[in-house]
Amino acid sequence: MKKWMILFSLSVSSLFAAPELFESIAAIVDGKPIMRSEVMENLYQYQNSAEASGKSEKEQIAYVLDKLIDDKVLLSRVDRDSIKITDDEVDLRVTQHLQNLAARQNISMAVLERAIRAQLGMSMAQYRDNLAKQVREQMTIGRIRQRYVGGIKPTRKEVAAFYEHYKDSIPRQYNCMKLAHIALKIHPDTLVVDSVRQFAETLIDSLDHGMSWEILAKNHSQDSSAKKGGDIGYFQKGLLDPAYERAIKTVDNGAYTPNPVRTERGWNIIRVIGRKEDGVRTAMILLQMIPTAADTAKILHLADSLKSVLTTDSLFEDAAKKLSSDKETNFNGGNLGWVEKAEVDTAYVSIVSDLAVGEISDPFLAGDGYHLIRLEDMKQVRDYNLEEDYMKVEMFAINYMEDEKLRELVKKWREEVHIEIRLKD
Question: Which residue segments constitute the domains of the chain, with CATH numbers given?
Answer without folding.
Answer: 25-152+396-421 (1.10.4030.10), 173-187+292-382 (3.10.50.40), 190-287 (3.10.50.40)
